[in-house]
UniProtKB/TrEMBL annotation, chain A:
It catalyses: RX + glutathione = an S-substituted glutathione + a halide anion + H(+). SUPFAM superfamilies: GST C-terminal domain-like (SSF47616), Thioredoxin-like (SSF52833). The keyword Transferase applies. CDD domains: GST_C_Phi, GST_N_Phi. This is glutathione transferase. One of its GO terms (molecular function) is glutathione binding. The lineage of its organism: Eukaryota, Viridiplantae, Streptophyta, Embryophyta, Tracheophyta.
TrEMBL record, chain B:
Conjugation of reduced glutathione to a wide number of exogenous and endogenous hydrophobic electrophiles. This is glutathione transferase. It comes from Lolium multiflorum (Italian ryegrass). InterPro entries: Glutathione-S-Trfase_C-like, Glutathione-S-Trfase_C_sf, Glutathione_S-Trfase, Glutathione_S-Trfase_N, GST_C, GST_Phi_C, Thioredoxin-like_sf. Residues 2-83 form the GST N-terminal domain.
């Protein structure tokens, strides 16, 4: 079986999402660098794999995929075992529904609140030399505080977001939270002890540690 | 077994996304109407169901679910898994790809157009025409990808209809009621795919509860 291929850059949040799932399942893979700072994601060669010209793209034999969450789910299904079912699809209809709920919550509630802080404090300054828009940051932090309040209540009742076992729902939070912790606002998580402990638990996972190695913490 | 309960207002595109899946699945359900203008979704009774204070919410026995795509997947997994292609690794991946394309590429473009062109005039706010114009330019580029896809594939995930197609209906319904529908209709395969969706009995039934002005014109605002 030839290794699967991920096309992207290890610094990219959406690429990191996919790499984390590959590391969690112990799959053999090859990361083919797409130099997005040099505009390689817009090249005809890359657009053939991801018609929206974004990273990551993914290839497994003849199957070519894009959209990081779709890629990640394919990986978690393909390499699923009796002991490792991060989508809980073989557990039961209720368990997999909860994974879906909290996976959507990450995409639709958490990400819109946390990502502007990462964009304003790290990504725009590094990639465009832009100044941080403090109004956007402050509004986002307020929104994030509200979201983390909901997470705190959830994690008081449940060891992980979707239930008592770690799942794709938890892992999805890694990339943007990792970079958020490199902004001046990391201490926001101190206000939410259960959330903070959950985050530290994720960071301690060997697969997370392996992916972190290729993600800068200083800019 | 008690029928499932779906809480919300039928004009909501998030609600309608779920309603289409319920109808496709032929599942028994009860619609529990809520009032948006009355702030029902912010009341403690609803926050106990969905701490994010949003609709739709599905109650299925002991399970309470929110986030429209999570609800949709649950319904199909339970009643019509062929619309997720869960038994086929490659096909289920293609379904997931195009569900996410709608969520992360298309909806973020058409939602502000719908909001500015349809809703704002009724709520007394000014339409942000610059944002609408920018969105239409982005839409054209995105539709080129859809057109290329639908030129070689009958439906988005393959030659089979799936959640990937159904999930597009509800926001597009409103976009296609604006003067910008012609932008979509300029792409022949996208147009044909859209018309095929509109012909589905489930879609016709749900659309009947979705007046193009969200009910503002008739004073029937949820």
């Amino acid at each position: 079986m030839s290794p699967v291929k991920v096309f992207g850059h290890p610094m990219s949040t959406n690429v990191a999402r996919v790499l984390l799932c590959l590391e969690e399942v112990g799959a053999e893979y090859e990361l083919v660098t797409v130099d997005f700072l040099a505009g390689e994601h817009s090249s005809p060669q890359h657009v053939q794999r991801n018609p929206f010209g974004k990273i990551p793209a993914f290839q497994d034999g003849e199957l070519v995929l894009f959209e990081s969450r779709a890629i990640a789910k394919y990986i978690l299904r393909k390499y699923r075992t009796a002991d490792l079912d991060l989508l809980a699809e073989s557990s039961g209809i209720e368990e997999s529904a909860m994974v879906d709920v909290w996976t959507e919550v990450e995409a639709q509630q958490y990400y819109p609140a946390i990502s502007p802080v990462v964009f304003e404090c790290i990504i725009f300054p590094v990639m465009r030399g832009a100044a941080t828009n403090q109004i956007v940051v402050d509004e986002s932090l307020d929104r994030l505080r509200g979201v983390l309040g909901v997470y705190e209540a959830r994690l008081e009742k449940s060891r992980y977001l979707a239930g008592d076992s770690v799942s794709f729902a938890d892992l999805n939070h890694f990339p943007f939270t990792f970079y958020f912790m490199a902004t001046p606002y990391a201490s926001l998580f101190d206000e939410f002890p259960k959330v903070k402990a959950w985050w530290e638990g994720l960071m301690a996972r060997p697969a997370v540690q392996r992916v972190c190695k290729n993600m800068p913490t200083e800019f | 077994m008690a029928p499932m309960k779906l809480y919300g207002w039928a004009v909501s595109p998030w609600m309608a996304r779920v309603l289409v899946c319920l109808e496709e699945a032929g599942a028994e359900y009860e619609l529990v109407p809520m009032s948006r203008s009355g702030g029902d979704h912010r009341q403690p009774e609803h926050l106990a169901r969905n701490p994010f204070g949003e609709i739709p919410v599905l109650e299925d026995g002991d399970l309470t679910l929110y986030q429209s795509r999570a609800i949709a997947r649950h319904i199909l997994r339970k009643y019509k898994p062929e619309l997720l292609r869960s038994d086929n690794l490659q096909e289920s991946a293609m379904v997931d790809v195009w569900v996410d394309v709608d969520a992360h590429q298309l909806e973020p473009i058409i939602r502000p157009v719908v909001f500015n062109v349809i809703i704002k005039p009724f709520t007394g706010s000014d339409c942000d025409q610059d944002l609408v114009d920018e969105s239409i330019e982005k839409l054209k580029k995105t539709l080129e990808v859809y057109e290329a896809r639908l030129s070689t594939s009958k439906y988005l995930a393959g030659d089979f209809v799936s959640l990937a197609d159904l999930t597009h209906f509800s926001f597009m319904r409103y976009f296609m009621a604006t003067q910008y529908a012609e932008v979509v209709e300029a792409y022949p395969h996208v147009k044909a795919w859209w018309e095929a969706l509109l012909a589905r009995p489930s879609v016709k039934k749900v659309m009947a509860g979705m007046p193009p002005d969200f009910g503002f014109g008739s004073g029937n605002i949820p």
